[in-house]
Amino acid sequence: MKAAWEKVKQQIKFQLPKNTYSLWIDPITYIESEDLRVSLGCPNKFSCNWVMENYFDIIYDNLRKEYNSDIEILLKVEPLKKKKNGPFYSPGSEQPEQLRLPNIPVKKRYGSLYLNKDFVFDRFIVGSSNEFAYSASKSISLGGSWNYHSLLMLAKTGLGKSHLSHAVGNAIIKQKPQTRILYLTAEDFTNEMIFSLKNKRIEEFKTKYRKSCDVLLLEEIHFLSGKEKTQVELGYTLDALTNSNKKIIYTSSLPPKDIPRMSKSLSSRFTSGLVTTISSPDFETRVKILQQKAREQNLKLSKEIIYFLAKNLKKDIRQMESALQFLKAKTEFLHARIDIALAKDVINCLVSREASITSENIKELVTKYYKIEPDMLRSRSRKKIYTYPRNIYIYLCRSHTNETLQKIAQSINRSHSTVLYATELIENKIKTDKKMRHQITFLNQKIEDMKS
């Protein structure tokens, strides 16, 4: 019956987030069973109550399927016994003790998660969309003079911010193995703090993050939305690390100012260091990514296929990985030949059929809406009648096309720094200028209509 419980745990593992499973389900042990009554052990009373309130149903459903009958489940407090040569494991403690096989290296764990050894700087494809974030991350990992106490990387899911966060940790450990790195998500931090409070171990928690940490890698800070007590505790922790000149790297899908119910003081701490953004890769970068990913999967793709995939896969890196896995599966299971027809089949499965928007489409829309000649977007005139629609044009190109900064800049006879400035200018004005906000909303809708 113990084997049955272990099997059920593996099933639950795929039904819950990784961190949730590790914290609450994995520590549960099999105690005994009699007829259709199964007794399971939790490491402490708090864990037992939490599992009963939040995860009892999923445990019951999976055990019932395994036994093929209605059963009775008893959750008891059954702390893991302490080993003679090491500590036992419970949520919030350090890593669990495990037997080591001879000559097999042990995977190191930092904080609540493992660093991915494959996420290193050498395997990160650098392009115009991520060059600044890459350079800043590498600089902070090399040590030496660093004028910023923290680095915040902003990007949507699948654009490489976690890769760079792991790469920083891996690079530091390679240079100085004794460095105390804590790598975790904001959700991990919150769960561990709750556990420490409930079990009267908050001082141990504070010591771990404020005094026993040289580098803090904190992912997904947008999870802190509305969690006031966690925000306060994290604020004190960040102050302690900053005062001790420790390194801190954050990642988020949203700028702190846009995270709902985020305290101004914590938002200020997040942005007091260096802030970088990672945008969707341009065509040239997508080609490089596809070429590297194809080599890693031993896929031989022609330039025609690589360029075709790069032209159509614009969402993120995960979409590109999915396309290559699709191609590999087709060749392995169906013995299909990789040609342009197969590549089109993949694109039809992964990409919604919508028209591709170009800067020319946007130029035509903007000049018609603001009633100016297209050539006036390229003029050197600084009159508002021309600068205003020019900035709108730049903003819409950045929002709806995958064209490079250089190409957008060339289309209006400007430098790429002008494109960056205009984009930031419009983004800020949208928040305060109601008239502009309505215009942008209208133009965005027109562009969406073009796609359909």
**CATH H-level name of the largest domain... which superfamily?**
P-loop containing nucleotide triphosphate hydrolases
Q: Spans of 5+ residues with little confidence (pLDDT < 50)?
A: 82-107
* Shape field: globular
Helix content: 40-55%
CATH topology of the largest domain: Rossmann fold
Q: What is the helix/strand order?
A: HHEEHHEEEHEHEHHEHEHEHHHHHHHHH
Number of strands: 10
CATH class of the largest domain: Alpha Beta
The biggest sheet, with number of strands, parallel, antiparallel or mixed sense and barrel status, is: 5 strands, parallel
The largest beta-sheet arranges its strands as 7-8-9-6-10
Any idea what the radius of gyration is? Answer: 26 Å
Rounded mean pLDDT is 83
Number of domains: 4
- Report the span from N to C terminus: 56 Å
- Architecture of the largest domain, according to CATH? 3-Layer(aba) Sandwich
Strand-residue proportion: 5-15%
Secondary structure category:
alpha/beta
| Number of alpha- plus pi-helical segments | 19
